[in-house]
Amino acid sequence: xxxxxxxxxxxxxxxxxxxxxxxxxxxxxxxxxxxxxxxxxxxxxxxxxxxxxxxxxxxxxxxxxxxxxxxxxxxxxxxxxxxxxxxxxxxxxxxxxxxxxxxxxxxxxxxxxxxxxxxxxxxxxxxxxxxxxxxxxxxxxxxxxxxxxxxxxxxxxxxxxxxxxxxxxxxxxxxxxxxxxxxxxxxxxxxxxxxxxxxxxxxxxxxxxxxxxxxxxxxxxxxxxxxxxxxxxxxxxxxxxxxxxxxxxxxxxxxxxxxxxxxxxxxxxxxxxxxxxxxxxxxxxxxxxxxxxxxxxxxxxxxxxxxxxxxxxxxxxxxxxxxxxxxxxxxxxxxxxxxxxxxxxxxxxxxxxxxxxxxxxxxxxxxxxxxxxxxxxxxxxxxxxxxxxxxxxxxxxxxxxxxxxxxxxxxxxx
Length: 414
Prior knowledge:
2 domains, protease, Creatine Amidinohydrolase, alpha+beta, Creatine Amidinohydrolase, Chain A, domain 1, 16 strands
């Protein structure tokens, strides 16, 4: 069962009269989880390029524009402190403002900006030689190195220099799947910001406004409220609802449209994935029926959320792909769907008939994930899309996403 008591979503500031997010405790928790995962593995070190993993281990961030260019990397060795190679002057900034890192471990680094500087320039060769030397100094020369994601040229260079490379992404995702109280509070705060944006969207959702204008409105409001990254806003209306295109356009909203939105942003790194569906001015019986079904499927999955339940049991309460117009589960992937939320948008557990039936995962206290349902309408073009974010507690699931969605909301009714 779900609790009616909302999760705490305090203001952005630290204050002396309430217990809010303790960022020192958050940093300690994340690094300890990563270290425990490393110690339990065969690896002597983790070499991390995934910018969510880098943030989790080093507690640093420089933004998506540079963070995803495969240039930043971090090394965590057994018994050692995190070492970071960052984009140019960012390394000097960390030495000044990130005192939890040893200044000697904050280096400027450059590997090639996803191939823009060719491997023949030698930057990768030099970096691997330095990493190999650090592993030798730590007595880890013969141990495998766990890598999460990597450019082929860098992988080949590691192998050429005699390093044994194994997969660390699975180990880091295992570390990240159980959220601390501080992480849950940040996830709740991020969801609360979207609660407010949906109020703005309902008020603006009138004939004549374009999908891209709604996207602009959401971006503006989120950044005003303190978002550090608006990753995506889907705005889908009218005949674009079925099939779900997973993007927005410049389509004009028209009277009687069904429209759904997905707001994906982060607050202090912690993300939302938060759909809501509305009708514009009025709703047809077909649109209401589709919404009712999507809500029933959602409620059935929420009732399953409790420690010890398998993700296969959750996925089983959703309709099979062939029951709502798709030929197989691959074609319908992401429509009846659950995915972990944290520093990344798609963490563990992933809940779907595509994968959960063959490899179920047991739900544990501290997991946070989004549940998504989708139902096409009988009119052939409308559709309902609902998403709720849930944290697993000892007593069951608690909902983070509070904008009303039990019944179809008609925006600006005639």
